[in-house]
Amino acid sequence: MNDTLIADAADAQVRRTATVESAREASAIQMQGLHKRFGRDTVALDGVDLTIQAGEFFTLLGPSGCGKTTLLRILAGLEEADDGRLAIGGRDVTEVPPHRRSVNTVFQSYALFPHLSVRENLAFGLKMRGMPPEEREARVAKIAEFIQLGDLVDRRVDQLSGGQRQRIALARALVCEPDVLLLDEPLSALDAGLRSQLQVELLRVQKRLGMTFVFVTHDQQEAMVMSDRIAVLNGGVIQQVGAPREVYEHPANAFVARFMGHDNLYPVSARSGNRLTTPLGELIAEAPGEGGLLLIRPETLDLLPGEVVGDNHLPATVAERLYRGSHAEYRLEIGETTLQATLNNRGRRLPEVGDRVTVTVAPEDLATLSE
Amino acid sequence: MRKRTLKRGLTAFWWLTLAFLYLPLAVVVLFSFNASNSAATFTGISLRWYHRLLGNEEILSAFANSMVLAIVSSVIALVIGCLIGYGMYRHRHRKLGWLIVLIYLPIVLPDIVFGISEMAFFVQVHRLTGLLQPGLPTMIIAHVTFQVPFVALIVYSRFVGLDPTLFEAAKDLYATPAKRAVHFMLPTIKPALISAFFLSFTLSVDDFVISFFTAGPESATLPIYIWGAIKKGVSPEINAIATLMIGAVAIAAIISLVFSRRRPA
Questions:
Q1: pLDDT tens, A131-187?
Q2: Which residues in chain B have Cβ-Cβ distances shorter than 8 Å to A156?
Q3: Which residues of chain B have pLDDT under 70?
Q4: Dihedral-angle region of residue A324 (phi above 0 means left; psi in -120 to 50 means alpha; beta otherwise)
Q5: d(CA B152, CA A143)
Q6: How many domains does chain A have?
Q7: What domain range includes position A275?
Q8: Which of A33, A273, B195, B225 is the most exposed place for a label (fewest CB within 10 A)?
């Protein structure tokens, strides 16, 4: 297993260096059959195979306890896998200790050294690598300018706010110019406004540096905004890997669908060709797939006033409306079944609670999943 | 109205407690400056007893013994206690509660039991091997044994108060185990180490019982000298020694307190 991984990586390396600049290519990550358990009963990772491309903003997404943090810690070298191999830039690092990996981490608690000034915190990694002081100073000054730290470098760590600490922690990791940067829910301790501001900042930094970022979060909105690709994990197993649109619009299974925020899942009780029988009524899907659950995304629905008859036209009653300005979220009742719909506010009349409406959906927007 | 009375009562109680604690010490300090020989009447201020101290070979040698004992034992206890404290921290997730009790035991054990045990042990070792004749070395070993638990607990509690991800951050930032110790752990626990050193120093200077049982004929410390001297009656000289000791211990204790409270900057 080990041999093939290295051979594959070496092949890939040869192919890539021929085409793209090689510096960035040092940062592709290959994981093969990673297993990890804690104690006797807790399985954190149950066979993870994953390839992360060089220069990618890659997100590990899942609920707490899904194994995403364990996977990140294995990448950092802070945790050792029970089984499986890990290669970074084609080099097998499964048993390499953290201080000898060209990987740096932005920790959730930031983990800034309290006995050091901000400047000394930033220089810590370079100093440990034995870089001479003048060069260190220059690198720290450069990163301070890049992250726009301004006069923060002369402060003490305990004088910093949460957002400032977060940026120092990011700068402290980036200044080492690692092949891969790992981020363990780095924004989760911040309030919403600061959080979205730092999301944008982090994304810009990553695009400008072209560095491989592996980001851990439990927030699917954050994952979709930030990522080139997302891996959704549950129970130590990867459920789906794909671009944000793929994962959101075509979830691989019911777990991914629910985790991405979809509530409109209905059992298919019978089917003939493209016609699916569901608790909502009979619906036509263009390419229904083989699954037993029908997924209807709220934003693919349209509401027509009054009763209109036709294929994929369902009579419904408005049970609830949440007006959000740019759009409105509806809870509709079709018989005993409820259905969520989102309507853009494009100046037309928005149906009110109690209105009788007709829900329509295009056949190409319907697909089924397995549980 | 009633609230104010209560507040005044509490204030009075506070001053009474302070007086109860410090009045005896104040008497000793005051009489160390007494111009006359009397232990009952204060006749005027003079430094004659302090001058007498400086001329007394026995006292000077006892003072030197006390200092050597306190400093050497504190340094040794600091090194051993620091390692034990770190070990306790590193393995805190294992079921090692009993080990902590073992560390606490010397702290709660009566000094006299501790002193007699140490003496009996040294006598046995000396009988079997010829080593460890009672003297400064045995006293140092004895003092180290009661100082180590304090150092270990101070260092341990300092580590427990740290964000555990700091250790991981140091690893992640390319620090080898040796560099982690030098550039992260030692600087981080420096206040705790200073505090532990001065606490050990204070404990050692204060100790009479354990020193008494483990001392040799040449290694009398100040407390042992005082104990011997007052058998002949309390001379004003003793007041002067006591005053100096109060001063020294108070300074060490204050340094220890200041550093135990200091968060690293």
A1: 999 999 999 999 998 888 888 888 889 889 988 999 999 999 999 999 999 999 999
A2: 265
A3: 1, 262-265
A4: alpha
A5: 40
A6: 2
A7: 265-369
A8: A273
CATH of the domain at A249: 3.40.50.300
Give the model confidence (pLDDT) of A223-265 as tens digits.
Answer: 999 999 999 999 999 999 999 999 999 999 999 999 999 999 9
Q: B175 to chain A: which residues are within 8 Å by CB? A: 99, 124, 128
Last residue of a domain, one of A235, A259, A283: A259
- B178 touching A, CB under 8 A? no
The rounded distance, in Å, linking the Cα atoms of A356 and A354 is: 7
Which of A78, A103, A113 comes nearest B184 by C-beta?
A113
Are B138 and B216 in contact, with CB atoms under 8 Å apart?
A: yes
Whether residue B166 lies within 8 A of chain A, CB to CB, comes out as yes
Q: How high is the pLDDT of residue A25?
A: 60
**A61 pLDDT tier (thresholds 50, 70, 90):** very high
B93 touches chain A (CB under 8 A): no
Q: What are the helix (H) ranges across A20-150?
A: 22-25, 68-76, 118-128, 133-146
The CATH homologous superfamily to which domain B57-261 belongs is MetI-like (1.10.3720.10)
Give the Cα-Cα-Cα angle B137, B138, B143 (nearest 5 degrees): 100
For the segment A197-204, the average pLDDT, to the nearest whole number, is 90
What pLDDT shows up at residue A13?
43
ipTM over 0.85: no
Residue A167, classed as helix, strand or coil, is: helix
**Min distance B263 CA to chain A CA atoms (Å):** 9
pLDDT for position A9: 45
Going by C-beta distance under 8 Å and a sequence separation of 6 or more, which residues neighbour residue B84?
A: B103, B148, B151, B152, B155, B156
Q: How far is A81 from chain B (nearest CA, A)?
A: 17
Question: What are the chain A neighbours of B173 within 8 Å (beta carbons)?
Answer: 99, 104, 124-125, 128, 172, 176
